[in-house]
Amino acid sequence: VYTRDLVDEQIHRTRVFVFELLAGVVAAVAVAGYLLVDWLVRRPVARLGALAQRVAKGDLGAQERVERADEIGELTTRFNAMSLKLRSAADQVQLSSDDLRASEARYRSLFENATEGIFQADASGRVLSINRALAQMLGLGAINAVGRRLRELAGVSSAQMRQVIAIMNQQGKVQQAQLQLRSADGRSLWVEVNAHWVDAEGGQRRIEGMVS
Fold first, then answer.
1. Are strands 127-130 and 188-199 parallel, antiparallel or unpaired?
2. Each residue of 55-89: pLDDT tens digit?
3. Which contiguous run of DSSP H or E holds residue 54?
């Protein structure tokens, strides 16, 4: 005989069972969802993050294995390609840097070992650099010529200098100009000068020339 109390108890048990069943299903879905997200998203993203850190620390060209053909896989493929491009660019920069250093070394060797005198001066005539041949020609020895006026070091008269500057301002250069110099030890010598204006960085101009 089904009494009201018995029916109520059965309904209560059913409700508890359904609640526990739903709770179990929700828990199972949550766990499955976490594991799925962990496998599909978190782990691949963590690997990409680790790859990014390797690249940032200088391991250019580092690669990550592409395991899937979804968006994460596409992102990994693109990241691998970017890493390779960074490696290629770094190699190119290194080659350019090596070439630049080699070019600078060749220029320095030519500058220092040339038999003709070579100089660079700013627009006001202050020396930026002179090579060994010109220093010996002017009898400067160990004197530091940088920052001093070239006209004073060479003992060129004001009249000669004004003439050279006038020609350079008109033509942008002077060729085979015959000048009489006076060295630091009092010697008088005639030289031939070729010089021209050079536009430098920042809108500054400088003079480069050769003396023989």
1. unpaired
2. 777 777 777 777 777 777 777 777 778 878 888 87
3. helix 43-56
